[in-house]
Design goal:
about 500 residues; Rossmann fold; DNA Cyclobutane Dipyrimidine Photolyase, subunit A, domain 3; about 5% strand; globular; binds flavin-adenine dinucleotide
Length: about 500
């Protein structure tokens, strides 16, 4: 960090920032490039703040860039519509903040090769995201390795950046203690204001500018792309800042007063915040959510329960993922659980299902189908259903590795909050992070199983499950077996 301007090295949030290469910052560059991959918000965004700090220190404007490829794993109307809606609001927010923001939507009619490298070549510095899962980390590392420009990565996902905590913490309770102690200091940061006019000089390409795009224009653009059109956007979870504001108001006024009890009732999706997709794509950050909660008149114990989910559990999985080369891998399942599952790999599997039946929620298990229809139709699943859903996949697939790949495939392809450190952390939990059970069951061994009793025994439970399982979803193209590690393709271009 020696060559960083003093304003940045002195910045109290320094553990948020990581130098990815040793290339110098080039004062002759035209701008500081702020490459957003997932943190699609204009304010309360540490990636933008670090870029602005650097820009101000170097006397250069900041160029915020967001690009969306056609060929990332699981590209679909659902993901594209959410992302581009959020990107549109990012552009509007940047303009209000006095920052230039340009976009690129990859398509046959406008193919830009190596665009990030070309933008970086004209930059004094590149500021990008420190994201531990899915394609973002490969892309960041590749740009840092190839670029002759200094690259820094900034954590925008967590309230407390993992690097600010003791390293090597091994249990959630130890992590919780440390995180709770560290939290307060991280509530205090403010948007950095740019002192240089927005960049309006030459660019390495003719940019897309989504800030002024209407819904119809976004839809037409998406319809023209070579992506999975059968997986339609989620009506429940539109991608926009307005939807975040609606959810924050609902959270403080309606959800939190009864959160601890209501969040366990799957037949009441309104019992939780439904903010996870917005957190995954960074349309909102944890600090803004906590500020809204602190400002509201809500009982302390309900606030604490919510903070435990949002801050302890979510940030624990980010912390864990940061120590793993491939957080998506089956290898992360604890050894004792892998041993149990593999010992029983040859057990008869009378409940085997095809991948097509699993994707479409057409298995012989009505409760599981009700869960899966939420992923298939809404692009989200209630927390209380996810553990049952995940554990049952082990019995419905031929072996534990295929089961893991199947769960990742269903979660990542369909759910708007998939492809996240919380996805793989929670799946690993279902596969055996919890303590071993006492019964050596077929297929599972000592890995704990889960029944649907708590869902079925609620008043109206069976009727609700029947209705949910019967919902009509999209018909998707499904391979015979799930792709094993689609995330590892180092060939994905940028
Ligand atoms: C098998 C399985 C798979 C899961 N896959 C994902 C996933 O792909 N993406 C994802 O974001 N969450 C995942 N979760 C965690 C959790 O189910 C969702 O975060 C939650 O249901 C989202 O709904 P909400 O926003 O209404 O949650 P709320 O109850 O309103 O909680 C607020 C926020 O806290 C965080 N949170 C809540 N529970 C957890 C948890 N168990 N772990 C980590 N963070 C949590 C989320 O960011 C959530 O948005 C999974 C859980 C299980 C058991």
């Amino acid at each position: 960090m020696d060559d960083l301007p003093p304003t940045l090295t002195e910045w109290t949030d320094a553990p948020r920032v990581r130098r990815l290469n040793q290339a110098p910052f080039r004062r002759e560059g035209w701008y500081v490039l702020c490459w957003l991959q997932q943190a699609l918000r204009a304010r309360d965004n540490p990636v933008i703040d670090v870029a602005v700090l650097l820009g101000n220190a170097l006397g250069l404007p900041v160029l915020v860039y967001h690009g969306l490829r056609e060929d990332y794993p699981f590209a679909s109307d659902r993901l594209h519509r959410f992302i581009l809606g959020a990107s549109r609001d990012l552009a509007i927010g940047c303009e209000r903040r006095g920052l230039a923001c340009v976009q690129y939507v990859d398509r046959a009619a406008k193919r830009e090769k190596g665009l990030v490298y070309r933008l970086a070549a004209d930059a004094a510095a590149v500021v990008l995201e420190d994201q531990p899962a899915f394609v973002a980390q490969w892309q960041a590392e590749r740009v840092a390795a190839k670029s002759g420009t200094g690259v820094v990565a900034v954590n925008a996902a967590c309230l407390v950046p993992p690097a600010a905590l003791d390293q090597g913490v091994g249990t959630t309770s130890a992590f919780r203690r440390r995180h709770e102690k560290a939290r307060e200091a991280w509530y205090l940061w403010r948007d950095e204001e740019p002192t240089v006019a927005p960049y309006d000089g030459p660019l390495a390409y003719e940019p897309d500018r989504l800030g002024g795009a209407s819904d119809a224009e976004l839809d037409a653009l998406i319809a023209s792309l070579d992506i999975d059109h059968a997986l339609y956007p989620s009506a429940m979870l539109p991608g926009s800042r307005d939807e975040v504001l609606i959810r924050l108001r609902r959270l403080t006024e309606e959800v939190l007063p009864a959160y601890a009890e209501a969040r366990n009732n799957a037949s009441r999706p309104e019992g939780s915040s439904t903010l996870s997709p917005y957190l995954h794509f960074g349309v909102v950050g944890p600090r803004e959510i906590m500020a809204a909660i602190k400002a509201a008149d809500v009982a302390e114990d309900q606030q604490q329960k919510f903070a435990d989910e949002l801050l302890t559990w979510r940030e624990w999985f980010h912390y864990r993922a940061r120590t793993m080369r491939v957080p998506e891998s089956y290898a992360r399942v604890p050894n004792w659980a892998k041993g149990q599952l593999e010992k029983h790999a040859d057990d008869p599997r009378p409940e085997l299902e095809t991948l097509d039946a699993l994707v479409h929620g057409e298995t012989r298990d009505e409760t599981w189908n009700a869960c899966q229809k939420q992923y298939l139709i809404d692009g989200w699943m209630h927390n209380n259903l996810r553990m049952y859903w995940a554990k049952r996949i082990i019995a419905m697939t031929p072996d534990p590795q295929t089961g893991w790949a199947t769960a990742c495939y269903l979660n990542d392809r369909l759910s708007l909050d998939g492809r996240d450190p919380s996805t793989y952390g929670n799946l690993a939990w279902a596969w055996g992070d919890a303590a071993p059970g006492y019964r050596d069951n077929p297929i599972y061994g000592l890995v704990q199983t889960r029944t649907d009793r708590s869902i079925r025994e609620r008043p109206g439970g069976p009727e609700w499950l029947r209705k949910m399982a019967a919902r009509e979803g999209p018909r998707l193209q499904v391979p015979e077996t799930p792709p094993v590690d689609p995330y590892l393709s180092e060939k994905l271009p940028i």
